[in-house]
Amino acid sequence: MKGYGRASSALTVVNAFATGKGAAVGIELWTEARVRVTSDGIRGRIFVRGKELSDFRLIRATLEVMREFIGEEFGIDFEITSEIPLGKGLKSSSAASNALVLAILDAFKMELEPLEVIRLGVEASRKAGVTLTGAFDDAAASLLGGLCITDNKRDELLKREEVEAEPAVLLLPDETLLTEELRGRDFSPIAEYVEEVFLMALRGKWKRALTLNGLLYASFLGHGVEPILAALPYGHAGLSGKGPAFFAITSEPERVAEEWANFGAVEITSLR
Fold first, then answer.
1. 188 CB burial (10 A radius; 0-12, 13-18, 19+)
2. Which of 5, 118, 143, 146 could disulfide-pair with 99, CB 3.0 to 4.6 Å?
3. pTM of the predicted structure, to 2 decimals
4. What is the spatial distance between Cα 66 and Cα 69, in angstroms, rounded to a whole number?
5. Nearest to 96 by CA among 134, 59, 45, 54
6. pLDDT in tens, 113-160
7. Selecting from 3.90.660.20, 3.30.70.260, 3.30.230.10, 3.40.50.720, what CATH number does the domain 2-161 have?
């Protein structure tokens, strides 16, 4: 039995670290998973932008979740290929767990409602320890696209809306920051301000919200806000997740790319 699944990257509108409530929007960078169901074990390869990785924590956790859900012991041969850089705050783990859940369901000829697929992927991410909040917002935007606003404590989708396929510019500094490195960090000093930003997004001002969110979290996490300020004349800009990736939503992507050339690698994609 063989199966296939794919899910996308996403950008942070409101980071859920401080309050447990967040928002994200999908973009056109993709992760694909192909599986073949076997009698037992895990065998496979992971390629991220052409580089092979050896960390199977998320794969093992996803397989454990899916065995329990399906009620059957089985193994997988798999291949995961991803366009999403790791450790940048661009939801690579959410995309991988979503894609793998979809591929296993496809192999077993099972169809689920999208929110149930997302919940399985979130459970796997929690088991693997690659999320602080459960990342239900990231997983929802990764699978569904558009703007997704969620309560991550309850795994509840509060609001989803379609978005225009506007250009999105990504700033990808050389360094990486893994989610587990922030475990135990106290975000309470910024919680009341993040709550206001979240309510702004819920009221429809999500592009303003993502900029304020970026200024708050970039300052708090020590990334600096210079990239956001440099991009503001051309649109809206923020910090994606824990960073270090910044992004801008703009009708002048080439101008933003020029402004960001000295900060690190720059790519242009679009919302989805």
1. exposed
2. 5
3. 0.95
4. 5
5. 59
6. 999 999 999 999 999 988 877 799 999 999 999 999 999 999 999 999
7. 3.30.230.10
